[in-house]
Amino acid sequence: MCGRFTLSASPQEIERAFGLDREPRLEPRFNIAPSQPVATVDQDTAGRRVLSLRRWGLVPYWAKDPGIGARLINARAETAAEKPAFRDALSRRRCLVPADGFYEWGQTRSGSRQPYHIARPDRGCFALAGLFERWRAPEGDWVHTCSVLTVPANPRLATIHARMPAILAPADYARWLDPQLRDPRLLRALLAPCPDAELEPVPVSRRVNRAEVDDPACIAPLPQGATA
After folding, report:
1. How far is CA 27 from the centre of its chain?
2. How far apart are CA 90 and CA 135, in angstroms?
3. Contact status, residue 157 vs residue 104, Cβ threshold 8 Å
4. Annotated catalytic, 2?
5. Which residue from 155, 227, 159, 137 is spatially nearest to 196, judged by alpha carbons?
6. I need a surface site. Which of 65, 66, 133, 161 has the fewest CB within 10 A?
7. Residues 6+ apart with CB under 8 A from 76
8. Mean pLDDT value of segment 25-39
9. Can you tell me the distance from the alpha carbon of 176 to that of 168, in angstroms, rounded to the nearest whole number?
10. How far is the C-alpha of 47 from the C-alpha of 20, rounded, in Å?
11. Interacting residues of 20 by C-beta distance below 8 A, sequence separation 6+
């Protein structure tokens, strides 16, 4: 699964990496958690890539209770096209979720859980494959939400966790955002485990376990041989 991630890159880097129509106004985030606002990129009717904040935890348009979003922070790429909660969004409402790292928790020999910050070796930005929805509250307000797709972990990360977020290749951003592309088989072909060499897991402090903690110390590597 994907339950925490980071986006600490500069606004200029984010604008370049995702071909945005303007520089975003974002603060660095080191511990983004479910139910919080996350940056998402989709395509407007003029074909421009625009950044919007959406709450992490997808609420389907047909939901009676927005609390369902707490259970829908992730969608399995293998089954999203079959699930009522994700099927329509996969066909019509796809987005990029900018990130420069994510967290997974592995089991230590003592049985405790060790968090790892997983990022590119160059610490650059990448896109998690996302879905988005909007839900209308009884009082009339619209609630904008999103979910992150997951795939089986690559061999390197499988030693930490069985699954990982689906990371899109930059060459596939346009196809993922293309509103004319609706065939689930073609969409599924874009979602595969990231090659081992493209990501590097680094053990970090258990301070990331607390969603209210969001500072650069969250991604600081532990001293060699230490545990959190």
Report:
1. 17
2. 16
3. yes
4. yes
5. 155
6. 65
7. 149, 150, 163
8. 97
9. 8
10. 11
11. 14, 41, 49, 50, 51
pLDDT over 90 (residue 1) = no
Q: What is the pLDDT of residues 152-172, one digit of tens each?
A: 999 999 999 999 999 999 999
Placement of tokens 């996350």 in the chain: 38
* Domain 5-219 fold: hypothetical protein yedk fold (3.90.1680)
pLDDT-based confidence at residue 140 (cuts at 50, 70, 90)? confident
pLDDT above 90 for 111: no
For the record, the structure tokens of 116 come out as: 């790892």
Q: How far apart are CA 104 and CA 227, in angstroms?
A: 15
Cβ 29 vs Cβ 8: under 8 Å: yes
Residue 2 to residue 182: CA distance in whole angstroms: 24
User: Which pair of structure tokens corresponds to residue 7?
Assistant: 């986006």
**Contact status, residue 93 vs residue 167, Cβ threshold 8 Å:** no
Q: Is 170 helix (H, G, I), strand (E, B) or coil?
A: helix
Query: Considering the chain, what is the average pLDDT of its residues?
Result: 95
**According to the model, what pLDDT value does residue 164 have?**
98
Instruction: State the pLDDT at residue 21.
Output: 87
Q: In sequence order, which residues have a C-beta less than 8 Å from that of residue 30 and are 6 or more positions away?
A: 6, 8, 214, 215, 216, 217, 218, 219
Active site residue 200: no
Reported pTM: 0.96
CB-based contacts of 5, cutoff 8 Å, min separation 6:
32, 97, 99, 101, 102, 103, 128, 165
What are the CA-CA distances from residue 109 to residues 67, 106, 118, 121, 227 (Å)? 36, 10, 20, 27, 11
Number of Cβ within 10 Å of residue 191's Cβ equals: 20
**Active-site residue, selected from the candidate residues 95, 104, 125, 133:** 104
